Amino acid sequence: MIKKIKSKINQAIRDFNMFTRKDRIAVAISGGKDSVLLAYILKNMGYNITPVFIDLGIRNSEESKERIKELSDSLNINLQVIDIKKELGFTIEKVYKHFNKYTCRQCGAIKRYLLNLFCIDKNFDVIATGHNMDDEIENLLSNNLRWDLNKLNKTFPVLEKKDGFIKRVKPMCYIRKREIEKVVEILGLKYCQTDCEYSKLGSRIRYRDVIRLIDSINLKTMEEYYKNFLKKREKIKIITEEKDIKKCSCGNITSTYKCSLCRIKEEIKTD
Ligand code: SF4
Ligand code: ZN
Asked: Which of 65, 82, 106, 107 gets mutated to test ligand 1 (max ligand atoms within 8 A of its CB)?
């Protein structure tokens, strides 16, 4: 089983030219089973990784940090922490008060920007995230049902360095969630067991039952849906990559006049 997981990760790294052994890889680690397993396997495979945890100041932050510290110590790697309270002056609780059912969307933007700025500052070559194939199928289904071509374009295991963002990769894109659960148990890896208190607000969650239902009919259907998308993605890229890029007053690159981080900060200041 562990061999199979390693081989799928290797395959993804090769298929999408994700990184080499010379690269400095920041692993975005939340303390959940996906990112814990990713850090463990990549280190085990001899890659130069650094786990980076974003402390969002939510219910499970302390537990997550504990699990990640234990993992980092056991792997002899240096954990890096980004504290959003220190960086922005507020936590996700405040974001929830302002954005309510859109909290996850704003939280995602905050994490993306803060992690990117941190990794540029620390000279990382690439950011690896723990998205598994189920996460990617959920994203694909959600974007596909709305025919959101820009977002479809980003539902890909590699986003190259572009417009102020460093390269981002998803080495576990060929691995199903159930496989991760099994191998984490076999390896006895400790991970954070408590969900974020806002996790029910995520928009992708509604597609989980659909995927479960289709899986129960034929396990291969959703996997083929995703893999066929990967083959056709080049065509979608051509249609969507004509975007006007602007610079926000803070220096971040944005497609509108203001970056998401500044928009969120301004909205919260009106409190
Ligand atoms: Fe952020 Fe939503 Fe994830 Fe919680 S569930 S960490 S609010 S994106
Ligand atoms: Zn900005």
From this structure: 107
CB 84 within 8 A of CB 55: yes
| 164 CA distance to ligand 2 middle (Å) | 12
Pocket of ligand 1 (CB under 6 A): 56, 92, 103-104, 107-108, 196, 198-199, 202
Domain with 172 in it: 2-269
Contacts of 166 (CB under 8 A, 6+ apart): 116, 119, 120, 124, 125, 126, 127
Closest Cα to atom 7 of ligand 1:
104
CB 68 within 8 Å of CB 53: yes
Nearest bound ligand to CA 93?
Answer: 1
Nearest CA to ligand 1 atom 8: 104
In angstroms, what is the span from residue 198 Cα to ligand 1's centroid?
6
CATH number at residue 239: 3.40.50.620
| Residue located nearest, by CA, to atom 2 of ligand 1 | 104
In this structure, is the dihedral angle defined by the CA atoms of residues 5, 158, 122 and 62, taken in order, positive or negative?
negative
Give pLDDT tens digits along the chain (271 positions). Answer: 889 999 999 999 999 999 999 999 999 999 999 999 999 999 999 999 999 999 999 989 999 999 999 999 999 999 999 999 999 999 999 999 888 888 999 999 999 999 999 999 999 999 999 999 999 999 999 999 988 888 888 899 999 998 789 999 999 999 999 999 999 999 999 999 998 899 888 777 788 889 999 999 999 999 999 999 999 887 777 676 666 778 888 888 887 788 888 999 888 875 5
Number of folded domains that form the chain: 1
